[in-house]
Structure formats: structure tokens, C-alpha cells
């Protein structure tokens, strides 16, 4: 049975944005700003950036907000919330806000494994889930996908939105392969020795996308593509061999699906996250573009390449985790989050990231995924183990 989307009495879809102050969240606000006749923001959350949260709440006249960092309770900035706007604190407050009766669609754009519990609650509540948190599926895809009705979970990652659209009108059983594209990041073509010397500033200089710090580092290590490969397996019900990673330097082909007869359907467009965000809100309709169009007459060339998993070992580790399955992807994700934070803080090197992740994976006794509680326990274990490995290298 397919999911039936709902809307408010005025015909607008009522949106809650979890993580409205991050890169995806602020671009979602822009989409809602451009399509105010079709979208109504009814609830917003942020972790700690309360000034930006208040500004968004005032602009969109939101009646409910949540701040997941409970230390912000009493922050003077919150006194400027619009009249009648309720504010709650803590992770559970964000979930409660998302599953309220007056919410039709929830954009989960918070970073990391914290999105898993929220995604599960949203699906259980029968809300439409626009998922920009890949870690939810990497860690808990075995739990989330059986909960989702067709059309209820809409991917927001540019690559997965592209694949989703390449399947539209086609028979999935006649697909031959998914080509999952990536730019290759700022260090494409680097050797392992060169990667040993890169700095945080080097790694944050992504060639084509403007993203938050954590995902930008993941793109530089190619861990992001490894996580997306696991996510694609869950979303589209395929195995790791079916999903092939392809370097596409200009980031204009966002992914492709190849069919049995040799035909390849590709999704092309601007490198602008507002486009997949908007499609998750508008599906199955298409609205006027929120971004400048690509003029293919002046684009020049489209370049392709194969990733170097010897130099970029995070991609290799993600493949191991994806093929092994069970709780190993949870360890991969948690350890990577800790290692990336350490790199950003200057306490480990760029290539230490994959070394730390690998040490945690080697120490883990893989189990079948059984519950959110089990995954939370393993996530905590992996973070402690990764912190120990980071300390040993600092």
C-alpha cells in the first residue's frame, strides 16, 4: 500500500525541519521561502545555534521550536521568540515536535547517528520523512526500511534523490547497476603519502559543494561515498556489488541507473542541494527551480574516473562494513564521527581517520541488528573506543 501525503486546510504541506540552522536546514528554509504558497513551516529544531533558530522562527511565524542542547535552556536569545511560540529542550523534545498532529512532512537534516531515533519515530507516526541524514540508514536501515510505506521515505541526498528519479517509470527488476557518482573531493589523484600531509583547511576546500564541516571532511576522505553506498543498498534493496562508485569531477551528473538492455538513465543538474530538498517536498510534482539552471552549451566536458581505495581507505572500510552488515556499519559511522571531530580539532592527522575507524571495526564482535537500544549501546562503545584511539595518536 502506497503512502498518502497529507496537507493543511489551506492546501499547503506543513513542514517540520529538524536541524534548521545547518547547511541543509538553511537551504530548506530558502525552498520554503520561495514556495510559501505550497509549504508552511510549523516547527523547527536546532542543536545549539539559538540565535539563528529564533530568526527563522520569527520569519516564518513558527509556533513550536526545540533546542536539543539542554545547556541552552535560559539562553537570553530565546526571549526573542515570536509571541505564542513554545520552546522545549532535549533530543526527545525534537522528536515530539516532529510527530505532532499538525505536521505532514519532516525534514531530518541533523548530522550523525542522532537522526536514527527521530527517523524511526517519524515513520511510526505515519509522517512523510524527507531524509537528509544518511547515518539513519547506514546504522539502522535494517530497522527503518521495513517500517516505510512506498512514497513515505524520500531521500534528500543529491545522489539518492537522483537514483530515485532514475527509477521513476522503470521496472526495478530490469536494472543492471547503480552508478553512484562523486566529485572525488579536493584530493582527487593524491597518493597516500600526499594525504598524510594535508591540513584541515585543505580538506574543507571542497571543489563543487558548499556543505557543513563534518560532511565536507567525509567527502575529502571518500567516507561520505562509502556511507552513501550502504544507504543506497537499503533504499533500493540491492547489494554492494550492484552499487558502483564513479568519480564525476564536475558534480553535474548526480548519479545514474543502468538497465539490462544497456540503456543508462542519468540525473543531471546544478550542484545545488535546494533541488533535491525541494523534490522531497514536492514529490510527485515538480515546481519551479530554486537554483540557477545549468547551461550545457558552456559546461565544456564531463570527466569520469575510478576511486583509489588504496589511498582513500575509508571507502574500502565502508565496503567491508556494508558487505558484512549487522552492527558493523554502526561502528564504522560512530568511529568516523569521533575521528573526524579529532581531525577538525587538530588532534589527529587526515590519514589517522581511517586508521582509527579500522581499529574500532577490528575490535568489534558483529551482531545482527535487533533494536534501536542495541544500536545505541554499540554506538556508545564505538565512540569510547575511537576516543581512546584518538588519544593514543595525539
Account of the protein in words:
This protein is of the alpha/beta class and 394 residues long. Among the domains are: 144 residues, 3-Layer(aba) Sandwich (Rossmann fold), CATH 3.40.50.720; 70 residues, Orthogonal Bundle (Rna Polymerase Sigma Factor, Chain: A). It has 15 helices and 12 strands. The strands form 2 sheets. A 7-stranded parallel beta sheet has the order 4-3-2-1-5-6-7, sandwiched between helices. Strands 11-10-8-9-12 form a 5-stranded mixed beta sheet, covered by helices on one side. Strand 2, helix 2 and strand 3 form a beta-alpha-beta unit. The relative contact order is 0.11. The model has no long low-confidence stretch (mean pLDDT 95).
The CATH superfamily of the domain at 13-156 bears the name NAD(P)-binding Rossmann-like Domain
**Average pLDDT number:** 95
Give the low-pLDDT segments: none
What percent of residues adopt helix (DSSP H or I)? 40-55%
Using only C-alpha atoms, the radius of gyration works out to 20 Å
Order of helices and strands: EHEHEEHEHEHEHEHHHHEEEHEHHHH
CATH top level of the domain at 13-156 is Alpha Beta
What is the architecture of the domain at 13-156 at the second tier of CATH?
3-Layer(aba) Sandwich
Main sheet attributes: strand count, strand direction, barrel closure: 7 strands, parallel
Major sheet strand order: 4-3-2-1-5-6-7
Beta content comes to: 15-25%
Secondary-structure-derived class: alpha/beta
Give me the number of helical elements: 15
CATH topology of the domain at 13-156: Rossmann fold
Q: From the structure provided, what is the oligomeric state, counting identical versus distinct chains?
A: single chain
**What spatial form do the alpha-carbon principal axes imply?**
globular
* Distance between the first and last residues' Cα: 53 Å
Number of strands: 12
Binding site for 1-deoxy-D-xylulose 5-phosphate: 134, 158-159, 183, 206, 219, 224-225, 228
Organism: Collinsella ihumii
EC number: 1.1.1.267
Domain 1-deoxy-D-xylulose 5-phosphate reductoisomerase N-terminal: 15-141
Amino acid at each position: 500500500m502506497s503512502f498518502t501525503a497529507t496537507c493543511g486546510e489551506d492546501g499547503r504541506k506543513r513542514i517540520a525541519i529538524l536541524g534548521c540552522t545547518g547547511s541543509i536546514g538553511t537551504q530548506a528554509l530558502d525552498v520554503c521561502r520561495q514556495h510559501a504558497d505550497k509549504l508552511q513551516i510549523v516547527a523547527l529544531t536546532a542543536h545549539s545555534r539559538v540565535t539563528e533558530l529564533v530568526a527563522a522562527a520569527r520569519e516564518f511565524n513558527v509556533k513550536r521550536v526545540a533546542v536539543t542542547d539542554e545547556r541552552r535552556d535560559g539562553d537570553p536569545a530565546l526571549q526573542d521568540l515570536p509571541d505564542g511560540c513554545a520552546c522545549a529542550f532535549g533530543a526527545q523534545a525534537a522528536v515530539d515536535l516532529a510527530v505532532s498532529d499538525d505536521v505532514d512532512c519532516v525534514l531530518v537534516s541533523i548530522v550523525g547517528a542522532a537522526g536514527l531515533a527521530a527517523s524511526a519515530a517519524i515513520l511510526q507516526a505515519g509522517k512523510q520523512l524527507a531524509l537528509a541524514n544518511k547515518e539513519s540508514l547506514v546504522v539502522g536501515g535494517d530497522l527503518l526500511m521495513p517500517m516505510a510505506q512506498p512514497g513515505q521515505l524520500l531521500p534528500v541526498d543529491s545522489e539518492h534523490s537522483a537514483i530515485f528519479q532514475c527509477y521513476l517509470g522503470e521496472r526495478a527488476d530490469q536494472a543492471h547497476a547503480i552508478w553512484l557518482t562523486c566529485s572525488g573531493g579536493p584530493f582527487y589523484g593524491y597518493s597516500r603519502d600526499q594525504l598524510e600531509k594535508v591540513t584541515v583547511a585543505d580538506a574543507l576546500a571542497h571543489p563543487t559543494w558548499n556543505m557543513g564541516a563534518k560532511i565536507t571532511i567525509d567527502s575529502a576522505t571518500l567516507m561520505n561515498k562509502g556511507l552513501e553506498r550502504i544507504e543506497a543498498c537499503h533504499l533500493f534493496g540491492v547489494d554492494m556489488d550492484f552499487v558502483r562508485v564513479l568519480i564525476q569531477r564536475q558534480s553535474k551528473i548526480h548519479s545514474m541507473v543502468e538497465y539490462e538492455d544497456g540503456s543508462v538513465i542519468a540525473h543531471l543538474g546544478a550542484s545545488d542541494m535546494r533541488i533535491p530538498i525541494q523534490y522531497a517536498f514536492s514529490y510527485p510534482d515538480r515546481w519551479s527551480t530554486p537554483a540557477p539552471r545549468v547551461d550545457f552549451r558552456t559546461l565544456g566536458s564531463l570527466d569520469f574516473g575510478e576511486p583509489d581505495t588504496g589511498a582513500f581507505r575509508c571507502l574500502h572500510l565502508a565496503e567491508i562494513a556494508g558487505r558484512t552488515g549487522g552492527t558493523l556499519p554502526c561502528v564504522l559511522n560512530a568511529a568516523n564521527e569521533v575521528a573526524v571531530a579529532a581531525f577538525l580539532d587538530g588532534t589527529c592527522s587526515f590519514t589517522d581517520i581511517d586508521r582509527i575507524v579500522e581499529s574500532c571495526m577490528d575490535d568489534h564482535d558483529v551482531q545482527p541488528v535487533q533494536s534501536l537500544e542495541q544500536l545505541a549501546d554499540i554506538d556508545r562503545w564505538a565512540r569510547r573506543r575511537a576516543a581512546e584511539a584518538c588519544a593514543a595518536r595525539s
